[in-house]
Design goal:
Elements: H1 5-17, H2 26-32, E1 38-40, H3 52-60, E2 64-70, E3 76-80, E4 88-89, E5 95-96, E6 111-115, E7 118-120, E8 125-126, H4 132-137, E9 146-149, E10 155-156, E11 170-172, E12 177-179
Parallel strand pairs: 1-2, 1-6, 6-9, 7-10, 9-11
Antiparallel strand pairs: 2-3, 4-5, 7-8, 11-12
């Protein structure tokens, strides 16, 4: 077990930086995506599991994609993706949709695929440390599946966690979807 979230986060981020290339989520998502209309997703950066092709495919298959808008207080608003070319620059170098539907818009998603640095087999998610996604995931409807996007090597037995951390239902990797033992109803 890692002694702290900061140590765990640094370990996994260092390992990501050493990857020869960032892999995309499109192929695995195409195999397992349920028949849903609105998906909350994120715009990947750097060595994160890549979402660009997945966003394009979802839009091409007439699905709505909600993308986050980072607020000054690190909370997240959400907007409908108009297409990758139509995103606008946001805080901290993020690409965001031009129209903000508000922080509660995530509650309208039929599936949420969120970024993570690592997850455990029982659904504990480790993010980048700002608390943005923990706040956002607290607004997700209880019956909406939440998947964390990670690499296979980032699924571990234990991570430090806090009471405010929001669990996830599955890990989506570039290779597969892995159901996690924990659930948000436990």
């Amino acid at each position: 077990m890692f002694p702290s979230k900061a140590v765990a986060r640094q370990h996994f981020l260092d390992a990501r930086r050493l990857r020869s290339r960032a892999e995309g989520l499109l192929a695995s998502a195409q195999q397992v995506l349920p028949d849903v209309h609105r998906i909350a997703l994120y715009v990947s950066r750097g060595p994160e599991p890549q979402t660009g092709a997945l966003i394009d495919w979802l839009l091409a298959t007439d699905r709505e994609v909600l993308l986050p808008i980072l607020y000054a207080d690190n909370d997240l608003g959400w907007g409908i993706a108009p297409g990758a070319a139509d995103l606008v620059p946001g805080r901290l170098g993020l690409s965001e949709p031009p129209t903000d539907l508000g922080s509660d818009a995530i509650a309208t998603a039929d599936l949420v695929i969120c970024p993570a640095v690592a997850v455990t087999h029982d659904g504990v998610r480790l993010g980048r440390g700002g608390g943005s996604y923990d706040r956002a995931l607290a607004r997700v409807r209880p019956d909406t599946p939440v998947w964390a996007a990670v690499y296979d090597t980032e699924i571990v037995d234990a991570l430090p966690n806090d009471p405010h951390d929001q669990p996830v239902d599955a890990a989506l990797t570039p290779n597969r979807l892995i159901p996690l033992r924990g659930s948000r109803d436990d």
